[in-house]
Each structure stands twice: as C-alpha cells, then as structure tokens.
Amino acid sequence: MAFDKTREFGKEAEMLKVLGHPIRLKIVAGLCTQECNVKHIWECLGLPQATVSQHLALLKNKGIIEGTRDGVEVHYAVVSPFVRRLIEILDAAG
Q1: pLDDT for 52-92, tens place per residue?
Q2: Element (H, E) at 36
Q3: Which residue of 16, 40, 44, 92 could cross-link 36, Cys pair, CB 3.0 to 4.6 Å?
Q4: Between the CA atoms of 84, 62, 76 and 28, what dihedral angle is there, to the nearest 10 degrees?
Q5: Contacting residues for 52 by C-beta, under 8 A, at least 6 apart
Q6: Average pLDDT, stretch 33-46?
C-alpha cells in the first residue's frame, strides 16, 4: 500500500484499541467461530458475568459485535469484516 495522506484510519484505530485487551481478543476469537450468549462466554473463559458484560458492551459500542435477542437471551456474533480478518491473521500466525 502506498502512502495516502487522504486515507483515514480512525475507525480501524478505535477497533484496534478496543481489541488491545486480551480478554476482548479471546471473546472476539470465540465469537468468530460460534455465536453464543453471555453465559456461555463467561463459563468458557471462567470470568465473572459482570466482567464479560462490560467487555461485550465495549465491543458492541465499537461495532465489532452485535447481539440478537432470542427470548430472554442475547446471542452475540462478530459483524466486523475487518475484525474477522484480523482474527484469521492472528490464528494463522499463532
């Protein structure tokens, strides 16, 4: 990619900042493989529900994930193609 002074990377930079936390990376990596609810996430990661909910709120606020209501549960999934690609690259490098 050539230098382009007109190209803005604001949205990408904000997403990378949010993904700079290991727990949020684990959550996003898991959600790239399967859509699931908050209970499943905190059980898998062994974290308090409140902690997972706070991380999910940040990810949702930045447009990385979305929640779909199914009765009383909300199922989360990664909706950002940029983040999906980033997780693929991290998986390949790891």
Answers
A1: 999 999 999 999 999 999 899 999 999 999 999 999 999 99
A2: strand 36-37
A3: 40
A4: 40
A5: 27, 38, 41, 42, 45
A6: 95
DSSP secondary-structure letter at 80?
A: -
Instruction: Look at residue 35 and give its three-state secondary structure.
Output: coil
List all residues 6 or more positions away from 58 whose beta carbon is below 8 Å from its beta carbon: 18, 24
How many angstroms separate the Cα of 37 from the Cα of each of 10, 54, 55, 66?
Answer: 29, 14, 13, 11
- Rounded to whole angstroms, the Cα distance separating 54 from 72 reads 19
For residue 37, pLDDT over 90 is answered with yes
Burial of 59 from C-beta contacts in 10 A (0-12 / 13-18 / 19+): buried
- pTM (2 d.p.): 0.90
